[in-house]
Write a structure and sequence with these properties.
single chain, eight-stranded mixed sheet
Length: about 290
């Protein structure tokens, strides 16, 4: 199938209740936050991980939908397979094995795009010991930022079992759990048609991305993450390759506001999501842009 022929920009809203949406390993796995504003943060890498996990589950075993960056993957093995499948000769340059010429480089890079959904979607830097080059993906995401500031809680938990025989006399062992009582997060996304042409990102791939963004948390349940749900995906369809409006102007048309400023938010029903001042009622909301936009 041919690649997409138009630009898209989108706004993604998701929330968390009594969970940790994205722990910070530099802060003891506490929920990430902006220390100046207190707003919660979720990295783009975290969101992409959930998209990858959804695709891997939904398209298990289907050709062209393998995941390059996955748990336990050995990346060099995938690179070696590309050289073998495309019958491309390698040459050693410094400490890397590279294709001998530009034609070979294009072949192995295209092979990686055709085989791996996340490579043709998000791109990848594949310059390891076996170098198959770099791919700039058509789909890019920002960090997600909570609409309001969050308050992380550090809760003590206990375990009745012990790890070693020497601890048998202990009644229980203790641990810590970090959670956010509630947070509504907003991220922005961009999809480039010219870059999609280079990777082969198709209309079917685009539909799979929308499905993943709407349902990614349904396949990612965990006690540590509490209750997480996608609340809205508002998509601006430019109808042409380069676009009809600036992304920042489109994003300004979408907003979330608290119904009651006197009490802390504890549920999605505490907010109102609007597009051009009108409530967003559908989970997936496409917005076609006319030539006059």
């Amino acid at each position: 199938m041919s690649s997409i022929d138009r630009r898209y920009d989108f706004v993604l809203y998701f929330d968390v209740q009594d969970g940790n949406p994205n722990g910070d390993p530099d802060a003891g796995n506490m929920p990430r936050f902006d220390p100046e504003t207190g707003q919660g943060l979720v990295t783009d890498v975290c969101i992409k991980r959930k998209v990858r996990n959804y695709v891997e589950t939904a398209k298990a075993g289907e050709s062209g939908y393998q995941i390059y960056v996955r748990e336990g993957a050995i990346l060099n093995q995938a690179h070696e397979q590309a050289f073998t499948d495309q019958k491309v000769e390698k040459k050693k340059v410094a400490n890397q094995f590279k294709p001998r010429d530009e034609d070979g480089r294009n072949k192995v890079r295209s092979h990686m795009c055709r085989r791996f959904y996340d490579v043709r979607t998000f791109g990848a830097v594949m310059s390891t010991e076996t170098d198959v080059g770099q791919v700039r993906g058509p789909v890019q995401l920002t960090f997600a930022r909570s609409v309001d500031r969050i308050f992380a809680r550090d809760v003590a938990i206990t375990r009745m079992a012990v790890t070693n025989e020497k601890d048998l006399e202990k009644e229980r062992t203790f641990g810590r759990k970090h959670t956010v009582a509630y947070g509504l997060y907003r991220a922005h996304g961009f999809i480039s048609a010219p870059l999609a042409e280079k990777t082969g990102f198709s209309q079917d791939d685009l539909q799979l991305l929308w499905d993943a963004l709407c349902s990614m948390f349904e396949q990612d349940r965990s006690a540590a993450r509490g209750l997480m749900s996608t609340r809205a995906v508002v998509v601006f369809d430019h109808g042409c390759k380069l676009g009809r409006a600036h992304a920042q102007d489109l994003f300004a048309r979408v907003s979330a506001s608290r119904r009651d400023q006197t009490t802390p938010p504890r549920a999605f029903s505490d907010y109102t999501l609007t597009l051009d001042g009108q409530p967003v009622k559908e989970l997936f909301t496409p917005v076609p842009l006319s030539t006059s936009t």
